[in-house]
Model the fold of this input.
Amino acid sequence: AQSVTQLDSQVPVFEEAPVELRCNYSSSVSVYLFWYVQYPNQGLQLLLKYLSGSTLVKGINGFEAEFNKSQTSFHLRKPSVHISDTAEYFCAVMNYGGSQGNLIFGKGTKLSVKP
Amino acid sequence: DAGVTQSPTHLIKTRGQHVTLRCSPISGHKSVSWYQQVLGQGPQFIFQYYEKEERGRGNFPDRFSARQFPNYSSELNVNALLLGDSALYLCASSTPRGLSSGANVLTFGAGSRLTVL
Done:
């Protein structure tokens, strides 16, 4: 069975500091990888995705992530965070060739950016 | 362009009641998926519908059901509500490109927050 582990439930960081949110997955088949962000009392917004090709993917709001197949990781990074990045971030996987609506999510990482 | 719209945004029910949640996908999207997000957890897959047929089902009891209409909108129904059904219910739409053509990217609505007392 597939699973997604987000290693940190909460990450506090000061404004303009770099941040890395960690995500590891387990799967016996090839997967697609996603990061979503959820602001308070809102739905999920897609930050970035890895479908194929270059393992370094860039997303919105200055975020990027690197797919590492050997370590089954897809860590999210931003070189300099802003107060407005305070939100909950979810890593998710989708089976290649599986049900195309079935995303498996991690439990989320709450990023708190302090002035 | 309108995104995925869900209604109602908030609702309160008591144990044993029934609830219907509604979702309108982005124009042109033919697939709708439903997710349950319990407080403090990531979303969990409930159903996927495409062209009015169920294409995927998560590990939820039979009290949960859904359907998709000819205009691709969808309803999620939950019978005999339990306290544990309190959650944010998210709908997502996408345009399936076929199993061999790569992943769909799901666009989520803002959700319907259900409180069961």
Summary: The interface with chain B takes residues 4, 32, 34, 36, 42-46, 49, 51-52, 90, 92, 94, 96-108 of chain A (CB under 8 Å).
